[in-house]
Amino acid sequence: MTPEQALEWLERNPEVASVRAAVIDLNGVWRGKRMPVAQAGKLLTEGARMPMSTSTVDIWGVDTEDNPLVFETGDGDGFARPTGRGIFPVDWLARSSALIPLWMWQEDGQPSPADPRQVLAGVLDRYKAAGLTAVTAMELEFYLIDPSEGRPVSPVSPVTGRRLEGDSVLSIDELDQFEAFFADVYDACAAHDVHVDAAISENGAGQFEVNLMHGDDPLKGADDAVFFKRFVKGIARKHGFSASFMAKPYLDRAGNGLHVHFSILDAGGINIFDDGGDAGTPALRHAVNGLMEAMPECGLVFAPHLNSYRRLAPGSHAPTGICWGYENRTAAIRIPGGPPKARRIEHRVAGVDANPYLVLAAVLGAALDGMEAGREPVDPIIGDAYALELEQLSGDWQHATDRFAAGTTTRRIFPDLMRELFVLAKRQEQRGFAARMTDFEIATYLEVV
Description:
Helix content is 34%, strand content 18%. The chain has helices at 3-12, 40-45, 116-129, 172-177, 179-191, 218-238, 282-302, 308-311, 356-373, 397-406, 409-413, 416-434, 439-445, and strands at residues 18-24, 30-36, 48-51, 77-82, 88-90, 97-105, 133-145, 196-201, 207-212, 242-244, 258-265, 324-326, 333-335, 345-347. The protein is of the alpha+beta class and 449 residues long.
């Protein structure tokens, strides 16, 4: 949608009284401001001034201690400029509104190294310089939950009036019961160039997975993922549900993953992973090796929150060991079957709570590192990865933060300032959780020790 098309849309929708001008922060959360609809034309063409630190706050929206973008610089402004994706409606509020997606630039016109969309753009510049194009697709899992309860509870079916119970993987009946919700989600996606493929019911009660279509613009692919999450959350509210993209909202049910599929085209548009057979090319294997070598250092990107580590548990349909395999969903890296021309890599580590821009930057950056290094991976696994002795993904948030901060691969993929600010945010969040005493802790110790 061009700025002109967006303004025409606003003229056709006079009920829209305000707009949201927002960027995505390092946690994948929208941050910005509400503005009168009269400002939409300027926002769509010029953007708005916002503090450079807007994209670097912690999960609670608090400035991080020692953030060099805050007190050292007087918390100066940068330019939040349009991403080129136009405007999309927010019609689940009391009064209709619309959101204009922006990304951050420095005062001198250079990209902000702390903006996650700019971080991904930097990785894609490396691909362009190498004459390569990444084709990506993402699968996002989420739960619909009952918003009337204080803790996650499965929703009541709009058709039967009964609460969903138990797992019902690939259930057509369960999809049909939420058809009105999915119809609105698909309509919103179609209206805003978010190409959505199949939806399925997943392993948990009220859990669903939606596949976004593959495309040769990973920036658009990451945009589509954050737009999709916004649509799902808002439209769920409109239908009387809440939608959760937590990695593990239930201890006893499957977690929510963000799986990345990608292939790479050369300058002639040929898939460099395709060797005409099932095995794939040396370039595929080298990319796989780069991905596995980067996993210990990039774990914080794939599992950025305290709750993220509840998902990465043996037997949980989420990977725990660093390995790869053909058509093996217990492996961290899966090589799907199918026609050779569609040969691709599936990266299965990230939770859906992760920032899609940073996930794609980590995956594509590590794959390119691997292809440039040209090292062969260990043999692919066969069978159950959980039963094998493998190097494990970090199961500890603080350890993952330390590995990310000290990493050499992360230095190649991510700008220094972004790494510093991401670590500051994660350590501040860790201190925040450590400072809270749970009811379980009190009940365990209060009258026992």
